[in-house]
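ok trying again, last paste got cut off:
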Amino acid sequence: MIECSEEEKESLLPLLKEILKVAKRGRVSGFLDLAKESDSINNPFLSECVQLLGNGYESRAIEKIIDIRIAVKNIRGLKLIEMSMVREGILSIMRGDPQALIEEILFSFLGKSIHDKYLEERKHNFNSYIEKISKGEKTAKSDSGKWILNATSEDISKMLKAIDWESLGLILKTETDAVLHKIINSISADSRKVLYERLEMIASPDKKLLLTAENRFKSITAKIKARDAKTIVQ
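nice, full thing came through this time. structure:
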């Protein structure tokens, strides 16, 4: 019933990317806020299903509604794959599955060759992004950014061990490319991907959350400075 060509399957990549984007937003903003943004979703069926998330129904009820809506369409081929992908994406979002697992589930519909092509494209985009920010002017917008630019590798390592990705992502989202590049050069390849995904999730940082993140950053760096000063005295 879901038989179709490789070219037809590849045409669903934009939908897959949109589902992944919805999953990221849902993890950050919650189901209610996500449902409020459903009008901005391109795929009509995905938009319908996201609206269901904001109604407060139990997950089993939402799953049943989606299954009925697919069944009454009496479809096959590409359209059935499309709606099935949306179904599995929504169920993964409700379960709180990790982004990597959601991606794995969705690409199971399209096959390994399309998945490999997608991973290669993402790797290229990420490398291009790193190259772009490496050319940034050595300036910072905030006190947190200035600290990062002037900090030693050892101090940055101490800061990274103490701060959470959420706070760091909020700060870096509003900072210059130079500050972001300094941090990226201080973390592992796997951590770079986590940070990159975190930054993608943050559309426009909430001022209150940003202030909380900056205060947390200042508290951590003040302790680093105090410990270093104590070491010097000793």
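cool. The radius of gyration is 22 Å. Residues 143-233 form a domain with the Annexin V; domain 1 fold (CATH 1.10.220.30).
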